[in-house]
C-alpha cells in the first residue's frame, strides 16, 4: 500500500505486533501511537524504546493524546535523533504531518510545540542562561525539528546566520563535535532540561 509517496509495509494493532513488524521490516520511519493493546497504557512507547535499543537510531514518530513529559524525555534520552513526538490533535494538517514524517525519517527530531513548552516550564533550573534571546529562538526552532533553512525563513535571516547562532549555542552549552553523538539533539536535550 502507498500513501503520500510512502510505501506502508505494515499496519498493526497491538504492541507485540508492532515489535514484530519493527524487527522484520526495520522501516525507514514508523508512526506509533503511545497507547496500544494489550495494556492500552504506554505499550507503543515501550515497544518503540525497546526497538531503538535493539536498532539504535531507528526512526520513530510517536503520537500521543496528551503531553507526557516523561515520554518525551525517554524518547530523546539516547541523543541519536530520528525521533518525533506529536500530539494527535495537531496531525490534521496533512502537509505538516508529512513534513514531520520526512524529517524524522531523515534523522531529525520533531517535537510538538506544546510538548516543548511543557518540558521547558517543568524545568526548574535554566542551563541556557548564557544564551542570547536570538540563540534561544534558534534552539527552540531546532527543538521543533526545523532545519537551518526553515529556521532562517521563520526568523527572517540567512542560513549562514543560523549556522553562526548554532555554533554559539554548541559552544555555550559545552557540546563539542563527536562521531558518537548528534550535537543538535544534545542541544535540544539541554533545552528540554533532560541533558
Overview of the molecule:
The protein is α/β, with parallel strands linked by helices and 195 residues long. The protein folds into two domains: 2-122, Response regulator (Rossmann fold); 133-193, Winged helix-like DNA-binding domain superfamily/Winged helix DNA-binding domain (Arc Repressor Mutant, subunit A, Orthogonal Bundle). It is built from nine helices and six strands. It has helices spanning 15-25, 43-54, 69-76, 94-105, 113-121, 133-143, 148-155, 159-172, 183-192, and strands at 2-3, 6-7, 30-33, 60-64, 83-87, 109-111. The strands form two sheets. A four-stranded parallel β-sheet has the order 3-4-5-6. The protein has a two-stranded antiparallel ribbon with strand order 1-2. Helix 1 (15-25) runs parallel beside helix 2 (43-54) and helix 6 (133-143) crosses helix 9. It is globular. It starts with a strand and ends with a helix. This is Two-component transcriptional response regulator. The modification 4-aspartylphosphate is found at residue 33. GO terms for molecular function: DNA binding. Residues 124-194 form the HTH luxR-type domain.
Amino acid at each position: 500500500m502507498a500513501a503520500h509517496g510512502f510505501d506502508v509495509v505494515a499496519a498493526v494493532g497491538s504492541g507485540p505486533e508492532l515489535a514484530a513488524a519493527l524487527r522484520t521490516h526495520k522501516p525507514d520511519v514508523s508512526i506509533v501511537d503511545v497507547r496500544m493493546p494489550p495494556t492500552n497504557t504506554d505499550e507503543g512507547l515501550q515497544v518503540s524504546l525497546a526497538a531503538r535499543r535493539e536498532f539504535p537510531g531507528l526512526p520513530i514518530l510517536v503520537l500521543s493524546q496528551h503531553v507526557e513529559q516523561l515520554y518525551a524525555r525517554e524518547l530523546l534520552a539516547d541523543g541519536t535523533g530520528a525521533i518525533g513526538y506529536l500530539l494527535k490533535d495537531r496531525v490534521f494538517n496533512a502537509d505538516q504531518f508529512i513534513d514531520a514524517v520526512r524529517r524524522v525519517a531523515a534523522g531529525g527530531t520533531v517535537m510538538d510545540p506544546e510538548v516543548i513548552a511543557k518540558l521547558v516550564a517543568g524545568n526548574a533550573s535554566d542551563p541556557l542562561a548564557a544564551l542570547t534571546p536570538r540563540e534561544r529562538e534558534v534552539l527552540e526552532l531546532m527543538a521543533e525539528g526545523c532545519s537551518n533553512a526553515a529556521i532562517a525563513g521563520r526568523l527572517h535571516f540567512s542560513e549562514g546566520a543560523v549556522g553562526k547562532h548554532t555554533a554559539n549555542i554548541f559552544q555555550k552549552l559545552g557540546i563539542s563535535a563527536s562521531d558518537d553523538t548528534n550535537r543538535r539533539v544534545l542541544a535540544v536535550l539541554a533545552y528540554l532540561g533532560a541533558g
